[in-house]
Amino acid sequence: MEYYAHSLEEKSVSKWQNIEDHLTNVAVLSKQFAESFGAGDWAYLAGLWHDVGKYSQAFQAYLRRANEINDEISNFFKGRVDHSTFGARYVYNCSNQSGKLMAYILAGHHSGLMDWQQDAFHGLRYRIEDKLIESIDYVVEKKVLPEKLPFKYNNKRFGFQLQFFIRMLFSCLVDADFLDTEKFMNPEQYKIRIGSFDLCDLYDIFWKKFDELRNSAKDSHVNKIREDILVQCLSASELSPGTFSLTVPTGGGKTLSSLAFALKHALKYNKRRIIYVVPFTSIIEQTAKIFRDMMGDEAVLEHHCNFIADEKDWKTKLAVENWDAPVIVTTNVQFFNSFLSRKTSKCRKLHNVVNSVVIFDEVQAIPVEKLQPCIEIIKELALNYGVSSVLCSATQPAISQSDDFKKGIENVREIISDVNKLFQILKRTDVIYIGRQENDKIVERINQQNQVLCVVSTRKLAKDIFEQIGDSAEKFHLSALMYPVHRSRILAEIKQRLKDRKNCRVVSTQVIEAGVDIDFPVVIRALSGMDSIAQAAGRCNREGLRDKGKVFIFEPADGIPAGYFRQTAQCAERLLDTFKGRLLEPECIEEYFLNYYWLTQSRMDKDDILTICQGAVRGDIQFEELAKFRMIQNATEPIVIPVEREVVNLLEELRYVKCPAKILRQLQQYTVQVYPSQLKELMPYLEVNDYIKILRVKSLYDEKTGLVKDVPEYLNVEDTIC
Fold it and tell me: What does R_g of the chain's alpha carbons equal in angstroms?
């Protein structure tokens, strides 16, 4: 009797894929993936045994019934068949050590990694010891399972390392299984995956574009310093793989310099791809655009929660599944969540992070409550998976291992030869603390300046100050409560006014501090963490066209909201006298982070990830518990703001299309992200369909400040958006 792994719709049984071919193909491909971290033998056996449970009459009957074939075999039909447990049980019985580890992979290759035990009827232990499953009509070829773990381990970190290794093997098997199945069932789609770029091609394209930028750039003091930073990055790229830090003041050109480092380092040490990880979705599209401009659209894969590929762009849609692209731009959320996920869809790409260069932009933005698991992931990738990481920041946090922070990252090499000197020669501002200030005093200070940026930490304070400035065509407001097209339009107008030396007074939330290339002579910043103060200062005299810009720090009269904002502000406030005149220098920033981390060290693993991992030393791993980790807990939801005719037209078109992805992607530029509490207030004023939530009341969106937080009690029917 012939046994089959996959059927083809409307094709005769003789055209189906037999199990032996599928198992061999997956074994070979899994091994190819895992050899990059020394686990080829493990992955080969996982591939060889993952689907042996399909050698049952019940599964063969299931395939026939699914294809409406009635014959003698189809009479054994019993419904959907658990085909993954048999292989897991087999390897477990072969060895209670490596077999137990491999059992997680085989049992979960469709449903996801599971806990060792939840209760008597749930978990891997139940599946491989107690569950009744179909017998198979096949004698599994005996193989000797590898008993030696192929990674360097540390007794204190062994539990974390073990679950990490299983997850990487799982990634290899899952991706190989998906790819071989797709190659058989949809060969045309499989062909689309074949890449047309490698890093050698991109290196040449990058330098051609870079030389064009270099030749057109002004011969300024700042550009000369940027050139020196680039030279140091290229020099450091020759160093052996490992973990690097790139500490460059805001405006020092670290984005392109870090990319130049990554390209050259990757070519020298045969790294497979470059992954650029940013903290906020608000800047990822801008970063991805910079990379596309330098290397071409097809070379760069953008992957984050707001990204929806065009339904016709199959190459991108497929590459998102497993990150099979030369350059990936993604977010902290997508990157770190995936390394603690249990789902096949999330884990599938992980093996493609192996032997890459990973750049963590604005590394200080990792939430302190998630810091320790993230540090462990960065450590493990460098130690056992061939990853060279670059911790990139203008305010490098003190996360390197030291006497003050023993759990930090070991052997971090700074790319810049003299960070203190670089900050001194790139000092373009004087930072002055002006104490506690009422709003009217800040408004008075703003109105005294022709061009000024005021940055505060809350939307309410931004709106209050903005409204007190007075009616003027010279004032502007920026907030995440404005949809992106609106915000970009305002930002473009601000830049043009600055260029034309026209009056321009801007009040903004922190949204302007991340990735916005803008240059004011004067910046006013509400007291906050030193990293935020440094980011705001980076928007002052950015191009060094003035002798010195002025940055004024004030404490709001109404105080600072409790929680994160107050705690970081208090840590910064303690340094104002000690480092007067030197607040942006590395010594001050390091002291700030040491103080902040010391205060919060008990909260650096809020989800108890490392505690859960301690149980893994016995192989009793709780993957479902680990998967509860989330970089951001308070997930927001998008609301479409249809105040422009283009949006109204898109929404009308959305009613009738079968494939909405392209329209939904276009609508992202007209959405505002709101938190659950605000969404609850707004629900009576929204239209909700299968895809999106749409604002239906005009007065709830202000043309100057964005989505109104306080929902009016009474609304005019004529106010409804059509």
Answer: 28
CA dist 616 and 72 (Å) reads 47
Helix (DSSP H) and strand (DSSP E) numbers for the chain? 28, 21
Side chain identity at residue 707, one-letter code = L
Do 363 and 531 meet the contact criterion of CB atoms below 8 Å apart? Answer: no
Which one-letter amino acid corresponds to residue 637?
E
pTM (whole model) above 0.85: yes
DSSP letter, residue 416: S
Distance CA 298, CA 466 (A): 42
- The reported pLDDT for the residue numbered 714 is 42
How far from 123 is each of 119, 128, 135, 325, 649, CA to CA, in Å?
A: 7, 9, 21, 35, 50
Return the structure tokens found at 623: 């993957």
Nearest to 198, CA basis, from 387, 329, 326, 352: 326
Output the DSSP codes for 330-345: EEHHHHHHHTT---HH
Terminal alpha carbon distance of the chain:
65
Instruction: Report the distance separating Cα 399 and Cα 371, nearest Å.
Output: 9
Here the tokens at position 367 are 């939430």
Q: What are phi and psi of 366, to 5 degrees?
A: -65, 125
pLDDT at residue 453, rounded to an integer: 97
Write out pLDDT tens, residues 191-210: 888 666 789 999 999 999 99
Helix (H) or strand (E) holding 681: helix 676-682
Query: Which structure tokens are listed for 372?
Result: 């320790």
pLDDT digits (tens, 9 = 90+) for 392-409: 987 777 678 877 777 889
How far apart, in Å, are the Cα atoms of 673 and each of 282, 310, 707? Answer: 11, 22, 10
Q: Round to whole Å and give the CA distance between 615 and 622.
A: 8
DSSP 153-197: --TTTHHHHHHHHHHHHHHHHHHHHHHHHHHHH-HHHHHHT----
The candidate with the shortest Cα–Cα distance to 481, out of 695, 629, 202, is 695
Q: Which tokens go with 715? A: 């609304």
158-185 vs 40-49: helix crossing angle, rounded to 10: 50
Domains belonging to the chain, first-starting first, are 4-192 (no CATH), 199-423 (3.40.50.300), 428-583 (3.40.50.300), 637-719 (no CATH)
Candidates 160, 221, 100, 7; CA nearest to 616 is 160
CA dihedral 217, 220, 221, 224 (to 10 degrees): 30
Spatial distance between the Cα atoms of 541 and 527, rounded to a whole number of angstroms? 20
- Residue 583's nearest CA partner among 552, 539, 608 is 552
Token pair belonging to 583: 């607040």
| Residues pairing with 433 in the sheet | 553
Phi, psi values for residue 110, rounded to 5° = -115, -45
Residues of the chain with pLDDT under 50: 311, 713-718, 721-722
What is the DSSP secondary-structure string of 593-655?
Answer: HHHHHHHHGGGTTTT-HHHHHHGGGGT--BHHHHTT--S-SS--EEEE---SHHHHHHHHHHT
